[in-house]
User: Which sequence fits this backbone?
């Protein structure tokens, strides 16, 4: 038979049941800075100051070979015009936050809350730089492939490579940058990339390796080699008008320059602000980005809604 009709429950024992605050903090995730680590970095030229960085273009207008039909006649000289390509440092982004002294003292000491938020702010600003670089797609006009209505195909990938190879770019200095949606839903749906029968021998490498594109590492969003060219994913690849703006870049195509004080990409400053009796933290970044060699970039458009079968 029942011993009691009124046992204790959690509502009656609430005064003696403790709550536990773990040392674990769920922090924000940010994508890797793959574009900023790949393109031409002019930051080292900014140590003495300056806001505009010139990279003269000698390739647009080139020499033409002349023929000397009669020996010892006067040569015909040429003077192809140079093109002034430049990058301007004109962007200053920051994240600032203020935490009162009382609140700082009351927060559990196991949580270095100011450092946690400073780390998150740095991630936000690093993403801002990556997004600015990816946004340079809109200046690409020489080499554009694909459209908004279809997925990326193997033919389009090969066409993109051909564009740079036919212009004599060193493919060893090139890399693909795809949005993860395109990589997992479209590229990995291309049968020849994952079917061993297309390789003849499943243990030998063709243009790509069975299953993982010849890569056992996903560090820094590296997804392996595609036709001998490194391939990366980035959520900063622009999506707009139902289109992902994927890129194949020679490292000279895009450039950036950082002028953030402290010789770091992102600067963190913290100060006890007496006017508010609080701790003020400002995290900032100063930079400029530009297209330095437009024909060295290929825009690979693909649908942001369709998935390969």
Assistant:
């Amino acid at each position: 038979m029942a011993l009691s009709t009124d046992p204790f429950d959690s509502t009656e024992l609430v005064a003696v049941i403790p709550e536990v605050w773990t040392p674990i903090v769920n922090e924000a995730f940010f994508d890797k800075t793959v574009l900023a680590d790949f393109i031409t970095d002019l930051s080292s030229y900014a140590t003495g100051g300056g806001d505009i960085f010139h990279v003269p273009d000698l390739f647009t207008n080139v020499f033409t070979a002349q023929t000397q039909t009669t020996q010892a006649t006067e040569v015909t000289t040429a003077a192809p015009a140079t093109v002034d390509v430049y990058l301007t440092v004109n962007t200053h982004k920051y994240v600032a936050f203020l935490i009162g002294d009382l609140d700082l003292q009351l927060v559990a000491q196991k949580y270095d809350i100011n450092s946690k938020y400073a780390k998150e702010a740095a991630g936000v600003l690093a993403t801002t730089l990556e997004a600015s670089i990816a946004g340079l797609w809109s200046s690409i006009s020489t080499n554009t492939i694909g459209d908004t209505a279809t997925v990326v195909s193997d033919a389009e990938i090969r066409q993109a490579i051909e564009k740079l190879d036919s212009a004599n770019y060193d493919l060893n200095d090139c890399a693909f940058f795809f949005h993860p949606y395109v990589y997992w839903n479209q590229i990995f749906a291309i049968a020849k990339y994952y079917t061993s029968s297309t390789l003849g021998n499943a243990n030998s490498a063709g243009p790509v390796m069975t299953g993982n594109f010849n890569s056992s590492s996903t560090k820094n969003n590296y997804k392996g080699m595609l036709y001998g060219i490194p391939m990366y994913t980035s959520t900063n690849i622009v999506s707009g008008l139902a289109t992902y703006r994927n890129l194949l870049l020679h490292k000279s195509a895009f450039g950036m320059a950082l002028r953030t004080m402290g010789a770091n990409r992102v600067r963190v400053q913290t100060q006890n602000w007496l006017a508010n009796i609080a701790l003020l933290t400002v995290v900032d970044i100063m930079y400029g980005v530009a297209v330095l060699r437009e024909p060295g970039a290929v825009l690979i458009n693909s649908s942001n809604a369709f998935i390969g079968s």
